[in-house]
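can u do me a favor
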């Protein structure tokens, strides 16, 4: 296995202090430092995962592309259906589901879970927040890159679902994929997998699906944007959960933070 050391001085650590921190402070600091290292490793592994894809991974990716392409044939029809069914009541529901699926909700959910885990000394809560934060970061970087590469027009512009303006950097042309759908399915997938109860999974995935459909209703996304966003979030979230829970072969590819005498070193193993 090749090993590339990318050394980054994150910050100098003072060699002497006027006061000795309490054991509680040391414990909390040690936990947070370890969790930061795990977060960086999970996120780095997710971002570099395609470099290590095997046959099954490429098959799954191809299946996602195929399903997205097929769903695009229904883009016009799906948008026409929501246009015919817009009402004041439906508008209120759309705002509720949009709130669940926006980026702020992802930040709040992951922060509250992680902070609660620290407060109540719960690995389940802390781990859930860590997984969610990492999955959201991986997906955010991926979907932002895809949005500007694709440059797909949003439905509300009145253009065809086949209209693309790559690298236009115009908010009217960043439809593919749906970021809100990615957030909704990331939150729901992490919670559903960690709770591991049928009724919780049904409720969470229903909420995520409605969050995605609300983006079609609002005219911000086509059906295929939502389909691809949901598939991406499911894949990324499931992978991060497996890596965190140690269900893989145990290789150490990805980014790592290694504490040293007076600095922290960022290392990428691939």
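np, heres the sequence
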């Amino acid at each position: 296995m090749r090993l590339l050391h990318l050394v980054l001085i994150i910050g100098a650590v003072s060699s002497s202090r006027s006061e000795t921190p309490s054991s509680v402070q040391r414990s909390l600091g040690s936990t947070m430092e370890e969790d930061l290292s795990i977060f960086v490793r999970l996120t780095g592994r997710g971002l570099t995962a395609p470099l290590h894809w095997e046959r099954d991974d490429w098959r799954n990716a191809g299946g996602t592309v195929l399903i997205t392409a097929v769903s695009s044939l229904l883009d016009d029809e799906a948008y026409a259906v929501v246009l015919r069914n817009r009402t004041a009541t439906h508008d209120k529901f759309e705002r509720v589901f949009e709130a669940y699926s926006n980026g702020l909700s992802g930040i709040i959910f992951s922060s509250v879970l992680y902070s609660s885990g620290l407060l109540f000394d719960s690995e389940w809560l802390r781990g859930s927040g860590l997984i969610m934060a990492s999955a959201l970061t991986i997906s955010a970087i991926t979907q932002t890159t895809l949005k500007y590469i694709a440059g797909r027009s949003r439905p509300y512009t009145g253009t065809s679902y086949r209209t693309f303006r790559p690298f236009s950097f115009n908010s009217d042309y960043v439809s593919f994929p749906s970021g809100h759908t990615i957030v909704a399915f990331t939150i729901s997938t992490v919670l559903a997998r960690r709770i591991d109860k049928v009724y919780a999974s049904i409720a969470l995935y229903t909420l995520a699906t409605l969050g995605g459909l609300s983006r079609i209703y609002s005219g911000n996304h086509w059906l295929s944007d939502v389909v691809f966003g949901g598939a991406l979030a499911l894949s990324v979230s499931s992978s991060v959960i497996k890596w965190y829970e140690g269900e893989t072969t145990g290789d150490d590819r990805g980014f790592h933070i290694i504490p040293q005498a007076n600095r922290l070193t960022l290392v990428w193993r691939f």
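The first strand starts at residue 3 and ends at 4. hope that helps!!
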